[in-house]
Amino acid sequence: MAELLSYEHVDISYGESVVIHEACFSLAEGEILGIVGESGSGKSTVLKAAMNLLGRDGLVTRGDIWYRGRNLPDLPVEEQRNIYGPELAMIFQNAGSSFCPIRRVGVQLQEMMAAHGCRDRESVEEKAMDILGKFGFDAPKRILDSYPFELSGGMQQRVGVAAAMLLRPRVLLADEPTSALDVTVQKQVIEEMLLARKLFGTAILLVTHNMGVLRAMADKMLVLHRGETVEYGRTVEVMAHPKSDYTQRLLAAVPRLRR
Predict the structure, then answer these.
(1) Full domain range(s) for residue 37
(2) pLDDT classification of 1: cutoffs 50, 70, 90
(3) Cβ pair 123, 109 in contact under 8 A
(4) Is residue 83's pLDDT more than 70?
(5) Please, are residues 8 and 30 in contact by the beta-carbon 8 Å criterion?
(6) The pTM is what?
(7) Which residues of 118-140 are buried (b: 16+ CB within 10 A; e: fewer)?
(8) How many independent structural domains does the chain possess?
(9) pLDDT, greater one: 92 or 180
Protein backbone atom coordinates (compact mmCIF):
# COMPACT_ATOMS: atom_id res chain seq x y z
CA MET A 1 0.00 0.00 0.00
CA ALA A 2 1.20 3.51 -0.84
CA GLU A 3 2.16 5.74 2.07
CA LEU A 4 -0.12 8.76 2.58
CA LEU A 5 0.89 10.40 5.84
CA SER A 6 4.13 10.10 7.79
CA TYR A 7 5.65 11.70 10.88
CA GLU A 8 9.43 11.82 10.81
CA HIS A 9 11.18 12.57 14.13
CA VAL A 10 8.51 15.10 15.11
CA ASP A 11 8.80 17.20 18.28
CA ILE A 12 5.83 19.37 19.27
CA SER A 13 6.08 22.14 21.86
CA TYR A 14 3.79 24.50 23.74
CA GLY A 15 5.91 27.49 24.66
CA GLU A 16 9.16 26.09 26.05
CA SER A 17 7.62 22.73 27.00
CA VAL A 18 8.20 19.84 24.59
CA VAL A 19 5.10 17.61 24.79
CA ILE A 20 5.82 15.20 21.91
CA HIS A 21 9.29 13.72 21.44
CA GLU A 22 10.55 12.01 18.27
CA ALA A 23 7.19 10.86 16.89
CA CYS A 24 7.82 8.48 13.98
CA PHE A 25 5.06 6.56 12.21
CA SER A 26 3.28 6.29 8.87
CA LEU A 27 -0.22 5.72 7.54
CA ALA A 28 -0.82 3.89 4.27
CA GLU A 29 -3.81 4.12 1.93
CA GLY A 30 -6.87 2.45 3.44
CA GLU A 31 -5.07 1.69 6.69
CA ILE A 32 -6.32 2.39 10.23
CA LEU A 33 -3.72 3.35 12.84
CA GLY A 34 -4.85 3.64 16.45
CA ILE A 35 -3.03 5.86 18.97
CA VAL A 36 -3.48 4.94 22.63
CA GLY A 37 -2.12 6.04 25.99
CA GLU A 38 -3.30 7.57 29.23
CA SER A 39 -4.76 11.08 29.44
CA GLY A 40 -2.07 13.72 28.89
CA SER A 41 0.19 11.45 26.85
CA GLY A 42 -0.09 13.69 23.76
CA LYS A 43 -2.47 11.66 21.59
CA SER A 44 -4.71 14.54 20.49
CA THR A 45 -1.71 16.83 20.04
CA VAL A 46 -0.31 14.45 17.42
CA LEU A 47 -3.53 14.74 15.38
CA LYS A 48 -3.85 18.50 15.79
CA ALA A 49 -0.32 19.02 14.49
CA ALA A 50 -1.28 17.50 11.13
CA MET A 51 -4.32 19.80 10.87
CA ASN A 52 -2.50 22.98 12.04
CA LEU A 53 -4.79 23.17 15.11
CA LEU A 54 -2.16 23.53 17.82
CA GLY A 55 -3.20 27.09 18.63
CA ARG A 56 -1.08 30.18 19.10
CA ASP A 57 1.40 28.59 21.52
CA GLY A 58 1.73 25.19 19.84
CA LEU A 59 4.43 24.50 17.29
CA VAL A 60 6.14 21.63 15.48
CA THR A 61 9.68 22.45 16.60
CA ARG A 62 11.51 19.56 14.96
CA GLY A 63 10.95 17.00 12.22
CA ASP A 64 8.46 16.80 9.36
CA ILE A 65 4.85 15.74 8.81
CA TRP A 66 4.60 14.58 5.21
CA TYR A 67 1.38 14.21 3.27
CA ARG A 68 1.87 12.89 -0.27
CA GLY A 69 5.26 14.58 -0.59
CA ARG A 70 4.27 17.88 1.05
CA ASN A 71 5.45 18.96 4.49
CA LEU A 72 2.25 20.11 6.18
CA PRO A 73 3.68 22.53 8.81
CA ASP A 74 5.56 24.44 6.08
CA LEU A 75 2.65 24.89 3.66
CA PRO A 76 1.26 28.38 3.00
CA VAL A 77 -2.27 29.07 4.25
CA GLU A 78 -3.91 28.87 0.81
CA GLU A 79 -2.39 25.47 0.10
CA GLN A 80 -3.46 24.24 3.54
CA ARG A 81 -7.02 25.31 2.71
CA ASN A 82 -6.94 23.12 -0.40
CA ILE A 83 -5.84 20.11 1.66
CA TYR A 84 -7.82 20.43 4.91
CA GLY A 85 -11.31 19.15 4.19
CA PRO A 86 -10.93 17.74 0.67
CA GLU A 87 -7.94 15.50 1.54
CA LEU A 88 -7.48 15.56 5.32
CA ALA A 89 -10.58 15.77 7.52
CA MET A 90 -11.03 15.60 11.27
CA ILE A 91 -13.82 14.59 13.64
CA PHE A 92 -13.76 15.44 17.33
CA GLN A 93 -14.86 13.84 20.57
CA ASN A 94 -17.98 16.00 20.64
CA ALA A 95 -18.98 16.58 17.02
CA GLY A 96 -22.04 18.55 18.16
CA SER A 97 -19.77 21.42 19.20
CA SER A 98 -18.62 21.71 15.57
CA PHE A 99 -22.12 22.77 14.52
CA CYS A 100 -23.73 26.15 15.18
CA PRO A 101 -26.72 25.30 17.43
CA ILE A 102 -29.11 27.86 15.90
CA ARG A 103 -28.62 27.02 12.21
CA ARG A 104 -29.94 23.98 10.40
CA VAL A 105 -27.52 21.15 9.66
CA GLY A 106 -28.13 21.29 5.90
CA VAL A 107 -27.35 25.02 5.73
CA GLN A 108 -24.05 24.47 7.53
CA LEU A 109 -23.09 21.64 5.21
CA GLN A 110 -23.91 23.86 2.22
CA GLU A 111 -21.57 26.56 3.56
CA MET A 112 -18.81 24.05 4.23
CA MET A 113 -19.01 22.68 0.69
CA ALA A 114 -19.20 26.21 -0.83
CA ALA A 115 -15.96 27.11 0.98
CA HIS A 116 -14.32 24.33 -1.03
CA GLY A 117 -15.84 25.33 -4.36
CA CYS A 118 -19.04 23.22 -4.37
CA ARG A 119 -21.74 25.90 -4.76
CA ASP A 120 -24.50 23.94 -6.50
CA ARG A 121 -27.04 23.69 -3.66
CA GLU A 122 -29.07 20.88 -5.25
CA SER A 123 -25.94 18.83 -5.93
CA VAL A 124 -24.66 19.34 -2.37
CA GLU A 125 -28.02 18.34 -0.87
CA GLU A 126 -28.11 15.25 -3.08
CA LYS A 127 -24.58 14.26 -1.99
CA ALA A 128 -25.39 14.88 1.67
CA MET A 129 -28.57 12.80 1.51
CA ASP A 130 -26.73 10.05 -0.35
CA ILE A 131 -23.96 9.73 2.24
CA LEU A 132 -26.40 9.95 5.16
CA GLY A 133 -28.38 7.16 3.53
CA LYS A 134 -25.24 5.06 3.06
CA PHE A 135 -24.45 5.56 6.75
CA GLY A 136 -27.82 4.18 7.78
CA PHE A 137 -29.98 7.27 8.37
CA ASP A 138 -33.61 6.44 7.59
CA ALA A 139 -34.68 10.05 6.91
CA PRO A 140 -31.69 12.05 5.54
CA LYS A 141 -33.84 15.04 4.56
CA ARG A 142 -35.14 15.34 8.12
CA ILE A 143 -31.55 15.37 9.42
CA LEU A 144 -30.59 18.19 7.02
CA ASP A 145 -33.66 20.22 8.04
CA SER A 146 -32.95 19.78 11.77
CA TYR A 147 -31.14 22.08 14.16
CA PRO A 148 -28.23 20.35 15.94
CA PHE A 149 -29.97 20.62 19.32
CA GLU A 150 -32.85 18.57 17.90
CA LEU A 151 -30.49 15.60 17.44
CA SER A 152 -29.22 13.36 20.22
CA GLY A 153 -25.51 13.40 21.09
CA GLY A 154 -25.02 10.08 19.32
CA MET A 155 -26.87 11.33 16.23
CA GLN A 156 -24.74 14.48 16.19
CA GLN A 157 -21.59 12.36 16.30
CA ARG A 158 -22.76 10.19 13.42
CA VAL A 159 -23.72 13.27 11.37
CA GLY A 160 -20.25 14.67 12.13
CA VAL A 161 -18.65 11.58 10.57
CA ALA A 162 -20.90 11.86 7.52
CA ALA A 163 -20.13 15.58 7.17
CA ALA A 164 -16.39 14.91 7.30
CA MET A 165 -16.79 12.37 4.48
CA LEU A 166 -18.76 14.69 2.15
CA LEU A 167 -15.59 15.79 0.36
CA ARG A 168 -14.28 12.21 0.20
CA PRO A 169 -11.02 12.89 2.11
CA ARG A 170 -8.18 10.43 1.72
CA VAL A 171 -7.35 10.60 5.45
CA LEU A 172 -9.77 10.90 8.38
CA LEU A 173 -8.33 11.97 11.73
CA ALA A 174 -10.65 10.90 14.55
CA ASP A 175 -10.04 12.26 18.06
CA GLU A 176 -11.85 10.09 20.63
CA PRO A 177 -14.95 9.81 18.40
CA THR A 178 -16.71 7.24 20.62
CA SER A 179 -15.69 8.11 24.20
CA ALA A 180 -18.76 10.20 25.10
CA LEU A 181 -21.27 7.70 23.66
CA ASP A 182 -23.13 4.72 25.00
CA VAL A 183 -22.16 1.27 23.76
CA THR A 184 -24.90 1.01 21.12
CA VAL A 185 -24.01 4.33 19.49
CA GLN A 186 -20.28 3.54 19.77
CA LYS A 187 -20.95 0.50 17.59
CA GLN A 188 -22.79 2.65 15.02
CA VAL A 189 -19.96 5.21 14.84
CA ILE A 190 -17.36 2.44 14.45
CA GLU A 191 -19.42 0.88 11.67
CA GLU A 192 -19.68 4.28 9.91
CA MET A 193 -15.91 4.77 9.93
CA LEU A 194 -15.25 1.23 8.73
CA LEU A 195 -17.83 1.78 5.98
CA ALA A 196 -16.03 4.98 4.96
CA ARG A 197 -12.87 2.92 4.47
CA LYS A 198 -14.78 0.28 2.50
CA LEU A 199 -16.64 2.75 0.25
CA PHE A 200 -13.96 5.38 -0.32
CA GLY A 201 -10.65 3.74 0.64
CA THR A 202 -10.24 6.27 3.46
CA ALA A 203 -7.25 5.87 5.76
CA ILE A 204 -7.98 6.64 9.43
CA LEU A 205 -5.77 7.95 12.22
CA LEU A 206 -7.71 7.14 15.39
CA VAL A 207 -7.11 8.39 18.94
CA THR A 208 -8.90 6.34 21.58
CA HIS A 209 -8.81 5.18 25.20
CA ASN A 210 -10.98 2.20 24.36
CA MET A 211 -9.01 -0.97 23.73
CA GLY A 212 -12.15 -2.67 22.43
CA VAL A 213 -12.56 0.02 19.76
CA LEU A 214 -8.88 -0.28 18.91
CA ARG A 215 -9.08 -4.07 18.60
CA ALA A 216 -12.17 -3.81 16.38
CA MET A 217 -10.79 -1.16 14.02
CA ALA A 218 -7.03 -0.68 13.93
CA ASP A 219 -4.57 -2.47 11.65
CA LYS A 220 -1.65 -0.94 13.55
CA MET A 221 -1.31 0.75 16.93
CA LEU A 222 0.99 3.34 18.46
CA VAL A 223 1.36 3.55 22.25
CA LEU A 224 2.30 6.96 23.71
CA HIS A 225 3.54 7.65 27.24
CA ARG A 226 4.41 11.19 28.33
CA GLY A 227 4.84 12.22 24.71
CA GLU A 228 7.15 9.40 23.74
CA THR A 229 6.47 6.33 21.60
CA VAL A 230 6.88 3.16 23.65
CA GLU A 231 5.35 0.67 21.19
CA TYR A 232 4.45 0.65 17.49
CA GLY A 233 3.36 -2.27 15.34
CA ARG A 234 0.49 -4.41 14.10
CA THR A 235 -2.39 -4.39 16.57
CA VAL A 236 -2.74 -8.15 16.89
CA GLU A 237 0.98 -8.54 17.57
CA VAL A 238 1.28 -5.68 20.06
CA MET A 239 -1.78 -6.83 22.00
CA ALA A 240 -0.66 -10.46 22.04
CA HIS A 241 3.02 -9.80 22.78
CA PRO A 242 3.59 -6.28 24.19
CA LYS A 243 7.27 -5.53 24.55
CA SER A 244 7.32 -2.46 26.79
CA ASP A 245 6.43 -2.53 30.48
CA TYR A 246 4.09 0.42 29.98
CA THR A 247 2.09 -1.35 27.24
CA GLN A 248 1.83 -4.43 29.42
CA ARG A 249 0.46 -2.34 32.30
CA LEU A 250 -1.91 -0.50 29.97
CA LEU A 251 -3.36 -3.74 28.60
CA ALA A 252 -3.53 -5.27 32.09
CA ALA A 253 -5.67 -2.31 33.23
CA VAL A 254 -8.47 -3.19 30.78
CA PRO A 255 -11.43 -4.61 32.78
CA ARG A 256 -12.35 -8.21 31.99
CA LEU A 257 -15.57 -10.04 32.74
CA ARG A 258 -15.19 -13.28 34.64
CA ARG A 259 -17.75 -16.06 34.52
Answers:
(1) 3-202+214-223
(2) low
(3) no
(4) yes
(5) no
(6) 0.90
(7) beeeeebbebbbebbebbebeeb
(8) 1
(9) 92
